[in-house]
Amino acid sequence: MKPLLTLPLALLVATSAFAEDDHQRDKPVPGPNGGRVIEAAGHHAEFFVRPDRKVLITFYNHDMKPQPPAEQQISAIAEAPAGKAKLEFEKTADAFVSTTPLPEGDGYRIVLQIRPDAAAKPQNIRINFDTKVCGECNRAEYACVCSHG
Ligand SMILES: [Zn+2]
Asked: Ligand 1 centre from 149 Cα, in Å?
């Protein structure tokens, strides 16, 4: 029985060695919804703009399994050409959705503010909102996963 007992340990060692290699972050993680994956509140969070221009924020664990919304608090400021617009978010069963759509146009900056919970310090994430489709990965530029940045 001894070899069977040592096998899980060997697997564990192999797995963590792999995770170490994975740390060179040449390539961004592709968002399962087609959005941009950012590190926020100790999780992966995906920023995705739906066809109705409402912003969808989905949290994932380290294995990219979707996590239901918890105590996170989210807001965003769209620095649109017509003026800044603040977006509030509400919880759905599996994500956060902005209560209003993004302002017209694109090529402007969005500052996303995420708090792990109401008492925590906010984390600001700047996203260049560009909806042109990248010719290499076929994703919107704001969610492009090519290493050319
Ligand atoms: Zn690309």
From this structure: 8
- Model confidence over 40-66: pLDDT tens digits? 867 899 999 999 999 999 999 989 999
Which CATH number goes with the domain that contains 126?
Answer: 2.60.40
Spacing, Cα 137 to ligand 1 middle (Å): 4
Asked if residue 80 is part of any domain, the answer here is yes
Distances (CA, A) of 5 to 10, 11, 84, 101: 10, 11, 60, 55
* Cβ–Cβ < 8 Å for 72, 42: no
Q: Which residues pair with 90 in a beta bridge?
A: 97
31 CA from centroid of ligand 1 (Å): 12
pTM over 0.85: no
Q: How many CB atoms lie within 10 A of CB 74?
A: 24
Structural domain total, the chain: 1
Report the distance separating Cα 35 and Cα 48, nearest Å. 4
∠ at Cα 55 (34, 79), nearest 5°?
115
CB distance 105 to 128 below 8 Å: no
The domain of 105 spans 27-143
